[in-house]
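lol ok so funny story. i was supposed to be doing the assay writeup but got distracted and ended up predicting the structure for this chain instead. priorities right. anyway since i did it might as well share w the group, maybe its usefull for someone
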Amino acid sequence: MLPLVLAVTLALAACQKPAPVADAPREVVVLPAQADSGAQLLTLPGEVQSRFSTPMSFRIAGQVIERRVHLGDTVRKGDVVARLDPADAEHNAASAEADLASAREHFDAAEKQLQRDTLQARDKLISALQLEQTQDAYAAAKAQLKGATARAAVAGNQRNYTRLIAEHDGVISAEQANTGEVLAAGQPVFSLAWSGATDVTTEVSESQVAKIRVGAPATVRLTALPDQKLSGRVREVSPAADPQSRTFRVKVTLETQNPSLRLGMSGEVAINTSAQEKAASASASATTVIPATALFHQGNRPAVWIVRPADGKLELRPVTVSAYGERSVTLSDGVAGGEKIVVQGVHTLTAGEKVKPIAPLHAEDFAL
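and the output, tada:
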């Protein structure tokens, strides 16, 4: 009897269906829609440089016999920073001065002779031909004096050019010649970075240069001054690319001078690349930016999948697109900043489906 009861019990248990197990919500990759303030920042590495930097060189050839400054020294306008051997220049100046003195004596004699002959010609004591000869001699002496005066001035300048004088306040940023070297005229001895306006320079690619305009506001953060935020504006955008790197140089001038700045400091430059600075307007509608991969469609209208916070279900919401970017889409209507939108696999979703939002594994793949 007992075996029969067990058999009936097992048969009844086999006929009962197991209780259904609820399906787990589907995981979807979501990101919050970003409110667009109208400002787009382009962050680039930068380096502090003087706005003006010029080579310092002698105007004449000669041998360097003295250098009075070194790399990093501060100089003032009018300071003598180096000297050439002045011997030859002094000899030339002395010779030119002697020639000038001789020319002046000849001129004085010719002038006196002209005065005497003019009076005698008036009294018919000398012929007109003799007066003309005296006038010619006077004109030649005057021309010689003028030429000797010019040569003496040049020789005097060349004697002064044996001293290299700073024409601006600044800092010696490079040394290019040593004491004892024989230099050609114009060969650099030092480089002088002028005091005053300071630039932060950076390089941009061909795809970025069109976004930057002269006068755009910029923010500079330097590695050596992490707690300071410096403001500036784009002063210059190179019109041509560097032939080797194929990049364009951009110069940002700092609006305030900071005594802590040192030439060569490096950091980051954030340039506002907005097409124009937008004025605040009460009637202007807020815009949001989403990754281009989030855009779907509802009929003929663009749409995005929204995860409703109340019940975690999907909603296909139509949107209005105001601009298409390389990796992003700007919406003028339909989505508010902060709403969770699906950014991956949008073609496999169903309206009303309950989902589990998860963050992207590699957030940089959806960077705007």
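The CA atoms of residues 8 and 14 lie 10 Å apart. The chain has four domains: 26-38+280-366, 41-51+194-272, 59-80+162-192, 87-160.
back to the writeup now i swear
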